[in-house]
Every structure is written in structure tokens, then in C-alpha cells.
Amino acid sequence: MTDDSDIFPPRILIVDDQQSMCEMLVDTLNPSGFEVEWKTKAALAIELLKDRVFDVVLTDLKMPDMNGIEFCQEVNRNHPELPVVVMTAFGSFEAAVSAIRAGAFDFVTKPLDMELLQIALERAIKQARLQQEVRQLKNSLNIDVSFGKLIGKSPAMQELYKQLSQVAAVDTTVLITGESGSGKELAAHSVHQHSKRRDKPFVAINCAALPESLMESELFGHVAGAFTGADHDHEGLLVGANGGTLFLDEIGEMSPTMQPKLLRALEANCVRPVGGTDEIPFDARLVAATNRDLESAVEAGTFREDLFYRINVIPIHLPPLRQRSSDILTLAQFFVKIFSEKTDVELREITESVAQRLLDYQWPGNVRELRNAMERAVTLSEGKKLRIEDLPETIRNYQSRTMVIASDKPEELRSLEEVEKRYILHVLDTVDGNRTLASKILGLDRKTLYRKLIRYEQPSSE
User: Fold this and answer.
1) Can 3-139 and 147-317 be said to share one CATH topology?
2) Is the peptide bond before 83 cis (omega within 30 degrees of 0)?
3) What is the pLDDT of residues 99-125, one digit of tens each?
4) With a threshold of 0.85, does the pTM exceed it?
């Protein structure tokens, strides 16, 4: 069963006039994680459904007081969201078709194959829960589960909100790690907005976007005449952020010659502008971010160890979107609302087929990729409902990366290198990007793991 089913055991109502069949199904399904109740009369089941909530109904077709077709119609009329799986005699195809027309979700044939029965029940439950989530999105478009501009209701995000709230209350340096597109700048801005510095500037710079010569001038400032084109004094971002927060994005990309200069400025709380002789004091909180593994960069000699310890006072890690799948539809609906308003079109509806495709996809580009996908979908949609055709091709045509190892079909088998690659990435995902722990599980030293990840051309934080 799914993780949600582990938290909330799926509840099944069995309706069969043979008590022995009901008891056999209870004995079979209970150990598989289902919570089961049963009735031998359809009328009693209908009464029970008025007071109790179930995830799926499993019913026989032939019953003395009310046949299965009539029972399906009654359930579908009063509980349209509740899926019904019908049990029918082997070869009774016409009865199965009649049940589907009466509103049944699926049917299974007797004698029962318990493995196929469980698959049918799980499919029904999954579909019902997806329908419920889509309905909730339609009925509740106001995002009330957030911290600053970060959005998400998953346990991982709730824990992140708690950490960010605690960090915001203390005036110390923070290092935010996470994959590209996971929202590191939003997290930094949230820390600023919830801190005592909220009324002062929030100044951001991307260390990967500027060459070294411009980076020094941007951070520390320069005096007139310091270099060609410097016709006036420039105070620099550290001084410009005085009293507020300086956000250094992608700090792992800072050049080796800039790193000691930044370290000195942070230690002394003052800067010397390029071409200047006087030290200028500043009071700015530093929040840095990176999608690289800085510990590995320290080991490789590309990032200074003393600077790493200076900025890594309080580390905060942002989980990738694929590890908080319960947030995907919430974020998708939020973006649909934003872009519908922006383009002045009627609010688009996320259909169940689109929702399922969004949930199946792995989102290597994280929230940024989801945002772009929803902007595209809203822009291209022609009706009130988003279609699968409105999604980007990579999402439309996505196929699960689940790998079959024990297959007897040659076309499904993969090379040893591909098996190793997928397993290493799976382990790294499972331990939330912790390379030290991943190395121990894999039996590799960190440098070997680092080299393999470079060969796989994966972002360093993965």
C-alpha cells in the first residue's frame, strides 16, 4: 500500500450473503493492511454507510434481498465518491458490464485470485483518494499552509518551517542547501522576513552569475578611478545590506581567490572597497545557499575549509519535490491560480488525469519546473480544464524509472553500469542527499562516490 495507507489504513466494507466468504476475506485482507468490516445483507450495508466512512466497497452480485446491480446504483446515488468493486462468477461478462454501467469501479471473478483482488482494491482506493484531493483543491484555493513564500503541507515542509522559524529568531549565519529549483532563495527571504531585521534591506547576489572582477566590486564596492569605467564611488552589497540580510546564492561557485577576501570581511565585519584604503564597517546577516556538496568541495580543495565552517553555523536543507509528493498538487493548484489571474483567464481546473501525471513525474527541476509547467499549461489551455496535452512533453511522455531486475524479458533488462547508477541515486535520495551516510550504505569512500556522481552528470546536491 502507499505511505498514506500506512498512516490511515484503508477501510473496506464487504457485502456478501455468505458469512464464510466474508470471514475468509477478512482473514486474507487484514494482514495486508486493510481494515475490514462485513455485512451479509445489502440493506444492512446501506444503513452502515450512513454512519461510517469507507474507502472501498467489495460486493457480491447475487444476493437475496438486493442484487449487486441495485446495490451499486444505491451506493453510487448516495455516495458517488465511494468506489465499488464487484465479485461475479467466472465467465459472467454481461453481469460485469451491467455492474460497471451501474457505477461499479471494477470487477473481479470468482473463484477469487487474492493477489488480483488486492490490486483491484488498491487501484480503487488510489483513484478515490486522488478524486478527493482534486475536489479539495477545487474547494480550497487559498494556500494556508505556508511559511513566507514557501508552500507545502507535507511533514518535511512542516519540519522545515519549524527550523526556519527557530533560525530566524537568532542573528547568526545560515547555510541553505538543496537542489536547483527547490526554493533556497525563498527560504532565505522567509528567514529575513521573520527576523528582527525584517524592516531593513534583503540583498541577494548569485555568485555563479558574475565574473571574479565584478564580484569583488559588487560585494565590497569600489572608489572612483579604481578601474576603467569607475567614475564614481560604489558602496557594495555588504554595506548596502547594512542592518539587513545579505543572501549569497550558489556560494559554492565563488572563485578560490574571492573566498579568503569574503572570509576576512565576515570575520572583521568591515570591507575595503576596490581601489580604496579605508575600512568601512557593516552589520549584515549572512545567509548563503548552494546546490553543491561543500564538504566534498573542501576535500577536493576547491572550497576553503575555514570559510565553510564560517558559513555553516546553522545548516538548513530543503527537501526535493519528489520527496514531498503530497505537496505537488497543492503547489500546482497555487500556480494555476496565479497564472490564471495573471493572464486574465477563467480559473483552470486540474483534472484527475493531469493530477495523476503530475504525481507520477519525478520533478528533477523541483518547484521551479512545476511552476513553469503550470504556466505553460494555463497559457496553452483552451477550455476550463487542463488537458494532458497542455503539459510539457517530458511530463506527458514520462515513464516510471522503476527498473525490473528479475525479468525474463531481455528488453526489460539493463546493463550493470545502469543498475549501479540507479541504485546509487536511489540510496542518495533515500538518505536525503547525505553523502556520508550514502557512502557507508554503499560501501564506498566519499571521493569514489563524488567521482561517480560527476560521471553521472548529476547536480552535486543530489
Assistant:
1) yes
2) no
3) 777 888 888 888 888 888 888 898 888
4) no
